[in-house]
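Run log, item B.
One chain of 88 residues. Sequence copied directly from the ordering sheet:
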Amino acid sequence: VFALILWILGIVMAGALAMRVGEKFNVTGFSYPFVQRDSLLLLPEFFSVPIEQGYRNQRLSIEIAMPTGKTVEIDKSFNAYLKDVPLY
């Protein structure tokens, strides 16, 4: 059985304190449930953090690796979240 890999998704979650100090951060319990429908990758607008971790400026980075020659179409509703990413 052969499967065509359309993309590879990497998700990095961290709190501001861990990023500043460089220590490991406990990401257990973080939730970011994305959905794949055929060639579409649907990403939720928000992610959840366990309440016992409190709010410490948590961040979520998503890296999508595509095969050479393939293109990505990002819905314009994501523009507000992609301030530092050149899209067009």
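Observations after the first pass:
- Residues 8-81 form one domain.
- The first strand starts at residue 8 and ends at 14.
Flagged for discussion on Thursday.
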